Amino acid sequence: MLAALALLLGLFMLLHTQITNYGGLGSLVETFLPWFGLFVPVLLAGALWRRSASAVVALLVPVTVWLNLFGGMLTDKSHPGSDLTVASHNVGADNPDPSGTARALAASEADVLALEEISAQAKPLYEKALAKTYPYHVAKGTVGLWSKLPLSDTRPVDTEMDYGPLGDSKPADVKLAYNRALRTTVATDQGPLAVYVAHLGSVRVVPRDGFTTDDRDRGAKALAEAVAAERNERVVLLGDLNGTTDDRALAGITSQLRSAQDEAGDGLGFSWPASFPVARIDQILVRGVEPANAWVLPETGSDHLPVAAGIKW
């Protein structure tokens, strides 16, 4: 039985893309897929207790699959030197200390800083606390970008948080108040860089409906279409996507952009929840530039950890 369970665990991780997404099951599994490796030591303890050589040998299957999927995340893939440092943080609408969070982020020395989930009450506090470090900034709804370099061609990106007849009937200024994505151009020494800031819809585990991802999935599709239409070959996407890069719902985005953490990170890079991170749902994705390094910043007053990356041309 232990040998059979080991083989099933290996096949489960290997064939995770074949799991149905009914009720969001596939997305839920893919969000926490690395953690299924914890079943290996449990099965190993059982195999040793039963003195089952066949079970120990069978465990080579899930170990090999896990290392193939996630082994590269355990090593330091960072490289020295970068042309630009970018950072992103879901600051949390209920953050008790927006000014303190802003000061901590300014101390990160990021050249470009994206914030998500900015409440109307906290927005002036972020603007005041970051003004000295970042002379340029834009904000659309609940997302914003602060920069040491000039910004231009800023516009909101519709992630269809409000759709259908009721949403269509609302005036543009009403929709903009809770817009959750923007696009702007950063003027760098190496040329223009298109930067997107996004906060996709939240996911919920509901007893009757399962893992509800409709808002997030619809927003991911709209964001993927916006990136596909982007004419600038150099693109950086910063934001809380409420999904990992393994999540099939983000395939439209990850097929176009590469993860800075996957390519140049040190460790797993989990960012949520801040008190005990179990998943990386805060992403820095790029196209046309090379990630040099990527890391997670210290905890602030938010329930997310900030993430940062150095990029080069």
Can you characterise this structure?
The chain has 313 residues and is α+β, with helices and mostly antiparallel strands. Helix content is 32%, strand content 25%. A hairpin with a 3-residue loop joins strand 8 and strand 9. Helix 6 packs parallel to helix 7. The radius of gyration is 21 Å and the shape is elongated. The N and C termini lie far apart (53 Å).
- Biggest sheet details: 6 strands, mixed
Report how far apart the termini are. Answer: 53 Å
Order of helices and strands: HHHHHEHEHEEEHHEEEEHEHEHEEE
Overall geometry comes to elongated
The helix count comes to: 12
Strand order of the largest sheet: 3-4-2-1-14-13
Calculate Rg over CA atoms. Answer: 21 Å
* Low-confidence region ranges: 165-169
Approximately how much helix is present in the residues? Answer: 25-40%
Number of DSSP strand runs: 14
Strand content: 15-25%
Q: Any key phrases for this structure?
A:
313 residues, elongated, six-stranded mixed β-sheet, 12 helices, single chain, alpha+beta
Summarize it.
The protein has 313 residues and is an alpha+beta fold.
How do the strands and helices of this protein lay out in sequence?
Elements: H1 2-14, H2 25-31, H3 39-50, H4 53-58, H5 60-70, E1 84-90, H6 98-106, E2 112-116, H7 123-130, E3 136-140, E4 143-147, E5 151-156, H8 164-168, H9 172-177, E6 181-188, E7 191-199, E8 204-206, E9 210-212, H10 214-228, E10 235-240, H11 251-254, E11 258-259, H12 260-264, E12 282-287, E13 290-296, E14 307-312
Parallel strand pairs: 1-2, 7-10
Antiparallel strand pairs: 1-14, 2-4, 3-4, 5-6, 6-7, 8-9, 10-12, 11-12, 13-14
Helix pairs in contact: 1-3, 1-5, 6-7
